[in-house]
Amino acid sequence: MKYRAAITETDEISDINVSPLIDMVFILLIFFIVTTVFVEETGTEVDKPQAASAVNLEKNSILIAITAKGQVVYGGHEIQVGAIRPLVRRLTQQEPMPVILQVDRNANAGLLVRVIDESKLGGAKNVSIATESGGG
After folding, report:
1. Domain regions of the chain by residue span
2. Is the pTM for the entire model greater than 0.85?
3. Class of domain 50-133
4. What is the pLDDT of residue 136?
5. In three state form, how does the secondary structure of 105-135 look?
């Protein structure tokens, strides 16, 4: 009789504790959120010119936009040309990063040259201009 009673007691203790599994899923979720690299957008729409020699550039870069109205935009906010050098210097302290300029096809060429100069003086390893990929 004692043998049957022991079997009955063990059958009652057959619940699976899933709380450690839930904790582990939350920890993994937090890990993946923290380690994800977010793509920064300039925050403004520009009409980029097409280029037949367009190539893909690094994802870890500094994106600066120049609009047709002569605005220089970084991170969705308009900045002055004089603020580009300290911005690039601060962002390239940890590791050298390229500066990618998203320039509207109707932007002022003089403003473009000033932004390129300020980026290079700030320590950018190279400065590139983003274009639409053209056929040919």
Report:
1. 2-35, 50-133
2. no
3. alpha beta
4. 46
5. CCCCHHHHHHHHHHHHHCCCCCEEEECEECC
